[in-house]
Amino acid sequence: MKFKTLAIDSASELSRLIFSFDMKKHVGDYETIRAVQNYPGATERLNMMARRLRDFKASGLEVVIIAHEGIDKIYAKGGMIGTKGAPAPEPAAIKGRIDIPGSTGPEEVMRVADNIFRVRMINGSPTWLANPETIPGSDGACWQVKDRFHAQKIRGGLLPPSYSEIAAEAKKLSLNWAPPYIWIIYGGIGFHKTRSLLTFPRPIKILDVDQGTDSIRAELTPDDQVFRFNSEESDDYPRFMLEFESTLEDPKATENVRKRLNVK
After folding, report:
1. Is the backbone of residue 127 left (phi > 0), alpha (psi -120 to 50) or beta?
2. Looking at residues 212-228, what average pLDDT do you find?
3. What does the pLDDT average to over 107-130?
4. pLDDT value of residue 247
5. CA-CA distance, 107 to 11, in Å (whole number)?
6. For labelling, which of 5, 55, 105, 239 has a CA lying 20 to 30 Å from the CA of 183?
7. First and final CA of the chain: distance in angstroms?
8. How far apart are CA 87 and CA 79, in angstroms?
9. 50 forms bridges with which residues in the sheet?
10. What share of the chain is helix, strand, coil (3-state, %, to 5)?
């Protein structure tokens, strides 16, 4: 394989790109607005892409998805519709998870991942959290996290924002470290999530839909590659899928994408 890591930055903007494709939206178009009928197609495309990542992992690639964080309020069917003059309805559940539109999309993507860590600043430094922390103001709801290698045994679950450091400590502690993995690193803006990509096995291929790689471009090597896409341009979706699929170096699958999406 040409690359050792595939990174998508970010899931939030990738979702927007997929919606733009479903809406046939182009840059500068301020009148084509996302509607209910756009959700089924966009959500299913994202779900299929997420499951395809298992084949990437099976080929030996580390896969990293960078995402922003969001708090979703889940209502029972019809629960968001309040009665006039009555108090606002209470949600059936509150979930702290990756910022992807829809009620099922975030869960589908997170289900595919092996390791999900939320990033927050502790003593001025970004830290990957392996412990489920309570969402302030909620009734005990937590930010969602998970892992495959007993990450809570490393520094009490307050992990360094570094694949290489985590790998070294996991091996030192004889944990169940068995890469490659599919990672989701999510958190607020400005927590150096993109910078953490430099700690993953190289060379790395970055599919940048968030325009965030400028902060690390000077530290990338000639063997690393960055492909940038505009989430508001529907024509960028076929290009994204071609670069996504070509990572596996499977000529047949890549040609299928070319034909299906008419990519030159």
Report:
1. beta
2. 92
3. 94
4. 93
5. 13
6. 239
7. 24
8. 12
9. none
10. 35, 20, 45
Contacts of 132 (CB under 8 A, 6+ apart): 142, 143, 144, 145
122: enclosing H helix or E strand: strand 115-122
* CA–CA distance, 224 with 202 (Å, rounded to integer): 7
Tokens linked to 223: 């063997």
Instruction: Say if residues 98 and 70 touch (Cβ distance below 8 Å).
Output: yes
* Span 139-188, pLDDT tens digits: 788 899 999 999 999 999 999 999 999 999 999 999 999 999 999 999 99
Q: How far apart are CA 166 and CA 151, in angstroms?
A: 9
Question: Are the C-beta atoms of residues 85 and 95 closer than 8 Å to each other?
Answer: no
In single-letter form, the type of residue at position 41 comes to: G
Rounded distance between C-alpha atoms, residue 168 and residue 200, angstroms: 12
Please state the rounded mean pLDDT for residues 206-228. Answer: 93
Q: Is the pTM of this model over 0.85?
A: yes
Domain boundaries, the chain: 5-72+89-261
Beta strand 125-129 with 158-159: parallel, antiparallel or unpaired?
Answer: antiparallel
* pLDDT digits 0-9 by tens, 67-105: 999 887 776 665 555 555 555 566 667 788 898 887 778
Q: How far is CA 193 from CA 7, 24, 62, 96, 106, in A?
A: 11, 30, 16, 17, 18
Amino acid at 71: I
Other Cβ atoms within 10 Å of 60 Cβ, number: 12
Q: Return the structure tokens found at 226.
A: 């960055």
